[in-house]
Specification:
Two copies of one chain form a homodimer. Chain A is an alpha/beta fold and 315 residues long. In chain A, 54% of the residues lie in helices and 12% in strands. Chain A has 13 helices and seven strands. In chain A, helix 5 links the parallel strand 2 and strand 3 (110-116).
């Protein structure tokens, strides 16, 4: 058994193996996760957290690979957390181009980790938030969270980021676009990758059209950057825009967002604590069984039943 | 203002307009939803609830249309709830073939409703459950809940069903299959639609291969039905299989599942009640602001902060 204190020490020293162990801990054990996060938390808050999302076929992984190389050229250290949908039948995440990215892991300034959604799709958002904190505490300058951007749980995950980048490519199906709708709204930067393909300008115009529909007054207008990840074209411009957004956030919005994020995390933690202790207590009582039977027999509906059970606990 | 009692009366009488109003109420107002559901709840528990899910391009809507016609031929009334991902930019769900289904709505034995996920993706599972209860209380024999089956929230929604039907079609991309992994595990019946296309047999074999990987002993082995929704081929056989599954459930599993469902709904309701009342209370206190500031300043992590706040409330 590795002691948590040792792992924490390693994380704070930026030791790669300790970071890997720490992330495994937060994935597997909620109790260890909490001791660990509580210990590293004072050392967090320094990294710039990017969320990168886009459908399969948009060239996301290749783009991230090139972004890492550009950041390294600029002397910055980078952590990457890839969150992927996973088949419970095959038991593993799609690797694909990610293998090429693994080459980068011989570089001590880069840490790459794939988080499988496996049998715990609810816990993945929490585990990702914890993994970001670990990488932050380990001293990484930039942390990239990668998702495929399908569905609501993905939107939850990406919200850990301070700068959200949505990647498109010409010629991807309409359905994929629709699924990503919730994410488009919270994007800070758009990227049209594979910009050497025909229809790239049409893809840019589609996004512009969508942005114009959203006529809220905004202090930051999401720019649209064209890249060709395979050749690296446009990647330095993308990094420039990301840095620009970071400076923009630091001018004021960052503190407001930190407060909001702190409140959301606090409320979430309160919910977890309260419900687990109260439900554990209620389940031990005989009237819990009794009221379940009444729900099944259609004598009372679940919400009224909950009110009844709680009447005695809450004033 | 329509009185809730009037709407309830209309729902129980099977009045179409009242059912529509009731569903709008549960979509828009949690308070009205609760009074309404509590009132209709004793009249629920009679319908057979089907969950139908499959990616865009699988011909889901056309298949549902043909299923409705077959059920009507057999003298059964049908309610349909279509849950779709919705763009907050366009503000509306994709209609597509659904328009053709609207023709069916002149039939008093059919009720079709589209639920938009709009700005409340978390609430959609709850609203769908409530809508199912309303249709059930209104006397529909069969209720079909349709989703596109992408992501975890969709899996949540489809779990309202007693019989879960997963639709595939030959030649759909790999990515879509992966996203649906969580749903494949809980499927009771598989449908290969567009079975007149080449590769239909390959699609059947792919599912068979996946089912064999799952070597748990099961009382019900999910059958794979081939259909051609456009011509209606295979639809009577599908309905037969659905009825067979219904009889299978009634032999014993149905009661067990009803108990599980009741417990899940009760626990959910308890969580809602507890957290909303406790968080409301905490937010009024001065130390809530104070502890938020300490989280932002990295003096304490959110979970430890939650423990601190709750120490006084919970024993």
């Amino acid at each position: 058994m590795v002691k948590i204190e040792e792992v924490v020490k390693g994380v704070l020293a930026g030791d790669k193996r300790s970071v890997a162990r720490a992330i495994t801990m937060v994935e597997n054990s909620p109790e260890e996760a909490q001791s660990l996060i509580a210990a590293v938390y004072p050392n967090t808050g320094k990294a710039h957290i990017l969320g990168l999302t886009g459908p399969g076929g948009s060239g996301k992984s290749t783009l991230i690979e090139k972004m890492i190389r550009e950041y390294r050229r600029r002397g910055k250290t980078v952590g990457i957390i890839a969150v992927d949908p996973t088949s419970p039948f095959t038991g593993g995440a799609f690797l694909g181009d990610r293998i090429r990215m693994q080459e980068l892991t011989t570089d001590d300034g880069v840490f790459i980790r794939s988080m499988a959604t496996r049998n715990n799709p609810g816990g993945i958002a929490k585990a990702t938030k914890d993994a970001v904190k670990i990488l932050d505490a380990s001293g990484k300058d930039v942390i990239i969270v990668e998702t495929v951007g399908a569905g609501q749980s993905e939107v939850e995950i990406i919200k850990v980021a301070q700068t959200i980048i949505v990647i498109h490519a010409p010629g991807l199906g309409d359905e994929i676009q629709a699924i990503k709708a919730g994410i488009m709204e919270i994007a800070d930067i758009f990227v049209i990758n594979k910009a050497d393909r025909e229809n790239a300008d049409k893809a840019v115009m589609d996004i512009q059209a969508m942005l114009q529909l959203d006529n809220k007054e905004k202090a930051w207008t999401p720019p649209i950057i064209k890249t060709v990840a395979l050749t690296g074209e446009g990647v330095p411009q993308l990094i420039e825009k990301i840095e620009e957004h970071w400076r923009f956030l630091q001018k004021g919005l960052l503190h407001k967002r930190s407060l909001e994020k702190a409140e959301a995390e606090l409320v979430e933690a309160i919910k977890d604590k309260v419900t687990s202790s109260i439900i554990k207590k209620l389940k031990r009582e005989k009237r819990f069984e009794e009221i379940l039977r009444r729900i099944v027999d259609r004598e009372i509906d679940p919400v009224s039943a909950a009110e009844k059970l709680l009447d005695q606990i809450l004033e």
